[in-house]
Write a structure and sequence with these properties.
Elements lengths: L1 H6 L4 H12 L7 H6 L8 E4 L2 H12 L5 E5 L4 H10 L5 E5 L4 H13 L5 E6 L11 H10 L3 E6 L25 E6 L9 E4 L3 H10 L11 H14 L3 H22 L17 E7 L1 H13 L5 E3 L9 E6 L6 H18 L8
Helix pairs in contact: 2-9, 4-5, 4-8, 10-12, 11-12
The structure holds pyridoxal-5'-phosphate.
Pyridoxal-5'-phosphate binds next to helix 4.
């Protein structure tokens, strides 16, 4: 599998576009900068050097000191870092239990009762460790009930493999456009590098582009990467994208089914939902077990990541892995049987209950 991964990196169109962008770089024209400003209809888009830099540009502009910020306890670290950087001039921030919309509603009511005019909920579309998804239908219902509730969603892991034109895991859910900001990655499913901020209107875009602290100085996406971004964006507009999405969903469904069917592995899945997710995770225990399992799997040619506290709670360390479209069903079966063998080798204790 690792040899295949090495040979199936960027689609040729992306590599060629990056090269062309270098050759035609003309600073008096900024042509590739204009071309890359493709909107996620109807939302205008701001490009950033990474998702982390996107948060660093967007949050200081979007949030006022008089807002109340409610964030999921597990919202990505890059969001929490950007919030912390606001310091004493920033809004009051409250961490909420993970994916608990009842707790969110209680906190929204509390904030409104204390006079807040605008309340933000910050969450991930797909959580990057366990791969679980935002309960987005419930969030839409809450936003319909509370006009003051705004959503800021980090959907880095939702990009490309799902949603209309690959625009992510929350784009089709019906979140109110005028009260929702979606931030995503161009470095994962999109196949390039960078971050993207989809905002409600042109004025917000202009404010973030011109005033966002992390977009100042010379940290824009470099032209070769913009060339690749344009080429990938064009691929997203082709009908073939939905064929590619369905192929990947087939593999994601297969890995989930095999994990569920395996007596050694099914008790180690941290989430109950079988909704497709690009991030798969098995709970093994502590950091030593996560590292030992990863080393054994890599020795078998299977690339997985070890994960341990503080990225996940104590004793819920484990291995995290992703399935890509170029994997075959045979690859997926080989991975799951190797996981079962290695887990038996490194884990003497039974799995913790979720
Ligand atoms: C959910 C999420 N948000 C943000 C980031 C940071 O992305 P970047 O490396 O583009 O800054 C990651 C990184 O993996 C992520 O998983």
């Amino acid at each position: 599998m690792s040899a295949r991964l090495a040979s199936s990196s960027a689609p040729p169109a992306l590599a060629a576009a990056a090269a062309v962008a270098v050759v035609r770089l003309d600073l008096s024209d900024f042509r590739c900068y204009r071309e890359a400003r493709l909107d996620i209809d109807p939302r205008p888009v701001v490009l950033a050097g990474s998702t982390t830099l996107a948060h660093g540009a967007a949050l200081p502009i979007l949030l006022s000191a008089s807002d109340v910020v409610l964030h999921d306890r597990q919202v990505h670290h890059s969001v929490q870092t950007a919030l912390a950087a606001l310091g004493p001039r920033g809004p009051r921030c409250v961490a909420l239990p993970h994916s608990d919309l009842d707790a969110l509603e209680t906190a929204v009511r509390d904030a409104l009762a204390k006079g807040a005019r605008r309340v933000w909920y910050l969450a991930d579309g797909i959580y990057s460790m366990f791969g679980d998804r935002l309960p987005v239908a419930g969030l839409v219902a809450l936003m319909q009930r509370y006009d003051a509730l705004h959503a800021y969603i980090d959907d880095a892991h939702g990009m490309s493999w799902c949603g209309s034109r690959g625009a992510g895991s929350v784009i089709d859910a019906g979140l109110p456009v005028e009260r929702t900001v979606i931030v995503s990655s161009l470095s994962k499913g999109f196949g390039c590098a960078g971050g993207v901020i989809a905002v409600p209107d042109a004025l917000t875009k202009q404010r973030i582009e011109n005033l966002g602290p992390s977009l100042m100085f010379s940290i824009q996406l470099p032209p070769p990467m913009l060339g690749a971004v344009c080429a990938s964006a064009r691929l997203h507009l082709e009908d073939e994208l939905s064929v590619m999405q369905r192929e990947l969903w087939g593999r994601l469904g297969l890995v989930r089914k095999l994990l569920r069917e395996s007596p050694a592995l099914s008790t180690r899945l941290p989430i109950a939902s079988d909704e497709p997710s690009p991030v798969q995770y098995l709970v093994l225990g502590d950091a030593e077990q996560a590292i030992a399992a990863t080393q054994r799997l890599i020795a078998r040619g299977l690339l997985v990541n070890p994960v341990a506290f503080p990225a996940v709670p104590l004793r819920r360390g484990g291995v995290r892995f992703t399935i890509v479209r170029s994997h075959t069903d045979a690859d997926v079966r080989r991975l799951v049987s190797a996981l079962a063998a290695v887990v038996a080798e490194v884990c003497e204790r039974p799995a913790l209950s979720p």
